[in-house]
Amino acid sequence: MNKVVSGADEAIRDIEDGMTLMLGGFGMCGLPEKTILALVKKGVKDLTCISNNAGVDDFGIGLLLHQHQVKKMISSYVGENAEFERQLLSGELEVELIPQGTLATRCMAAGYGMPAIFTPAGIGTEVAIGKEVRNFNGKDYLMEMAFDADFAIVKAWKGDRLGNLVYRSTARNFNPVMAMAGKITIAEVEELVEPGELDPDNVHTPGIYVHRIFQGENYEKRIEQRTVRKRDN
Amino acid sequence: MLDKTGIAKRIAKEVKDGYYVNLGIGIPTLVANYIPDDVDVILQSENGLLGMGPFPFEGEEDPDTINAGKQTITKLAGSAVFDSAMSFGMIRAKKVNLTILGAMEVSENGDIANWKIPGKMVKGMGGAMDLVASAENIIVAMQHVNKAGESKLLPNCTLPLTGIKCVKKIVTELAVLDVLPEGGFKLLERAPGVTVEEIKAATAGKLIIEGDIPEMVI
């Protein structure tokens, strides 16, 4: 079995206008930056993007927004992107803001084959409008549906040609649950290794969830908020 | 009157030994700097880390290691990394003992608004709705009045809500207050140099004052 493709262009060959994509990452951290660049180059449009954030103006999903390739964003926090906020307030972009845990768990539900989950997040707020509320043990919960995405696009640290993936540090974030949730899952990795090189006890995403994998080159890994302490402290 | 550091220092006294704590962006993040050495706590960052350490030394920043505010941080000996679903799983399952976050408004029945100003600002709720819906111990760190001089402690919130009946305690530049289960802000402490009259004037919601209100010790 060999899931290796030549690169991002081949990996996205059948992504078409109007599709729903999940994109891993938290801010710039663990972002599938090579595949996003390929989507920008390909110019597919009317995309629905499910991703925790919307990138910054000149990196990540912000690049897709800038070219008006996104019809709808489903995110939890979009605070660092002026172009996003402009398109949202002007009505050019459809946006569904949902709680971060709800976002993660709707991915998880898809990957676990469960149609819906119940969460207390959003009870009594505008997030609850139009949703079924169920009471369990005296507390109200919202029914939230599993996501249905055409493609999930994730970034891992290492992967093998069978699609087994290992993430590094907090670049893990949404990537494992999104990897499980796509009808087709594309993984870009910093290092493609041979089967056997990853310790089976420490594989984070089993290869069964991954359909295409490639090694990206020259990761930029941009830092959004560079915070440091002085050594003399 | 307290500055932001003062608010953070006062909240740090609420952090108990053995707690797992989630700190929101802004003043709550500063709280970590003032937790006493003999109080052993583990900080949870909802992007997927338990055991959040201080900022890295200059030159040692790791783009793969950030907190929920997207700041570069470090891991500690004994840290654990996990995915976003598990992160909110432990929050929903009430494994996190204390949540400290900022707010735009809090109502006298403990409702909180902190994610949206219709037509002006939409940043999103991030993890705040999940945190306030599940946490049993929520402290809000905020200014008592907004930039226009209007009280942020209200009978009812006017902005879109983040959660209902969830805030337990508020620390502002003027005061420490409990939000009572039956409704109302119970004044517990005054900031240094602040009078009860000044707190009354800055509080639009129901303020409950019983006996002498001590000045806070920081």
UniProtKB/TrEMBL annotation, chain A:
<dbReference type="InterPro" id="IPR012792">
    <property type="entry name" value="3-oxoacid_CoA-transf_A"/>
</dbReference>
<dbReference type="InterPro" id="IPR037171">
    <property type="entry name" value="NagB/RpiA_transferase-like"/>
</dbReference>
<keyword id="KW-0808">Transferase</keyword>
<dbReference type="GO" id="GO:0016740">
    <property type="term" value="F:transferase activity"/>
</dbReference>
<dbReference type="InterPro" id="IPR004165">
    <property type="entry name" value="CoA_trans_fam_I"/>
</dbReference>
<comment type="similarity">
    <text>Belongs to the 3-oxoacid CoA-transferase subunit A family.</text>
</comment>
<dbReference type="InterPro" id="IPR004163">
    <property type="entry name" value="CoA_transf_BS"/>
</dbReference>
<protein>
    <submittedName>
        <fullName>CoA transferase subunit A</fullName>
    </submittedName>
</protein>
<dbReference type="Pfam" id="PF01144">
    <property type="entry name" value="CoA_trans"/>
</dbReference>
TrEMBL record, chain B:
<keyword id="KW-0808">Transferase</keyword>
<protein>
    <submittedName>
        <fullName>CoA transferase subunit B</fullName>
    </submittedName>
</protein>
<dbReference type="InterPro" id="IPR004165">
    <property type="entry name" value="CoA_trans_fam_I"/>
</dbReference>
<dbReference type="Pfam" id="PF01144">
    <property type="entry name" value="CoA_trans"/>
</dbReference>
<dbReference type="GO" id="GO:0016740">
    <property type="term" value="F:transferase activity"/>
</dbReference>
<comment type="similarity">
    <text>Belongs to the 3-oxoacid CoA-transferase subunit B family.</text>
</comment>
<dbReference type="InterPro" id="IPR004164">
    <property type="entry name" value="CoA_transf_AS"/>
</dbReference>
<dbReference type="InterPro" id="IPR012791">
    <property type="entry name" value="3-oxoacid_CoA-transf_B"/>
</dbReference>
<dbReference type="InterPro" id="IPR037171">
    <property type="entry name" value="NagB/RpiA_transferase-like"/>
</dbReference>
